[in-house]
Task: inverse folding
């Protein structure tokens, strides 16, 4: 068996964020469809800041002329992933800072630690002197100020968070906020992708480089999602890389990790068979075609 795909870019529509106002003080919970919940100090209801509107416009202008963009086709949503767009003699490049800051994460951010990200970015931009004038020409008028001024207050953290130096990674909806639902046909769909907001980054990164005929996302015997990768070339076993929390498979995975071992499933396991289903089908067709050619030559 081969190891994992190149992928097919998915097109998805961008969904706008809701605007509104809220009261400060107190505490509220934040949750999503998957089983997690955290307490966050209450803050004003999220709305698009002027900095974010500029960042989104500039980001789309930067990525639009790039052919075969590695992160996929648009329409794009603006992921707060710490992307740094730099320009050299061949055009624009997207590199990533050491950390990205989601909008809601700014309220626990230490300004001094965020400033370290600014300093890191500044060192990169020094090596690409054409970048800042080009960003300013595209509408990011205070690019130099955001990059030069020390981040020492919540207001400057907020400015950095929604600037083109952080809110700047173009992702289509599926890769950004997509949720995989087993009941809608995960089996036999190697092109399925989940968003970085719902699944671990090491897993979502696999979606970018895996083989097109390898099934990363599979369904366990409880009907829950899991992600598997091949153990090696020519090996029909798979390693469980991710399991839905609370499932029996997840408990097995945690137990193996606590023991310092991997959870490897044999090729006869249903998850392994799902993972290699497309490749197996290709091999069967190839064998049938070869047998047919041999019969034709004999006849």
Result:
């Amino acid at each position: 068996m081969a190891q994992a795909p190149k992928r097919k870019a998915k097109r998805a529509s961008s969904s706008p964020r809701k605007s509104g106002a809220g009261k400060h003080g107190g505490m509220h919970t934040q949750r999503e469809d998957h089983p997690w919940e955290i307490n966050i100090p209450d803050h004003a209801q999220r709305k698009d800041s002027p900095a974010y509107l500029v960042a989104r416009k500039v980001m789309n202008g930067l990525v639009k002329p790039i052919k075969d963009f590695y992160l996929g086709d648009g329409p794009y949503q603006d992921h707060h992933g710490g992307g740094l767009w730099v320009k050299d003699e061949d055009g624009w490049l997207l590199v990533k800072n050491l950390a990205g800051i989601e909008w809601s994460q700014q309220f626990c951010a230490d300004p001094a630690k965020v400033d370290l990200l600014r300093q890191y970015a500044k060192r990169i931009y020094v090596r690409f002197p054409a970048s800042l004038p080009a960003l300013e020409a595209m509408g990011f008028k205070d690019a130099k100020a955001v990059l030069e001024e020390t981040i020492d207050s919540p207001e400057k953290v907020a400015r950095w968070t929604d600037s083109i130096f952080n809110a700047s990674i173009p992702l289509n909806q599926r890769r950004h906020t997509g949720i995989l639902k087993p009941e809608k046909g995960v089996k036999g769909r190697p092109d399925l992708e989940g968003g970085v907001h719902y699944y671990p980054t090491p897993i979502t990164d696999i979606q970018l480089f895996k083989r097109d005929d390898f099934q990363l996302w599979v369904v366990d015997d409880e009907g829950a999602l899991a992600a598997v990768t091949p153990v090696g070339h020519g090996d029909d076993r798979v390693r469980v890389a991710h399991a839905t929390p609370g499932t029996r498979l997840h408990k097995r995975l945690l137990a193996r990790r606590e023991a310092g071992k991997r959870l490897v499933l044999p090729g006869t396991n249903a998850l392994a068979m799902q993972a290699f289903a497309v490749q197996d089908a290709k091999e069967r067709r190839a064998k049938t075609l070869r047998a047919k050619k041999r019969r034709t030559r004999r006849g």
Remarks:
- Confidence is low (pLDDT under 50) at residues 2-24, 40-44.
- Residues 9 and 72 are 5 Å apart (CA to CA).
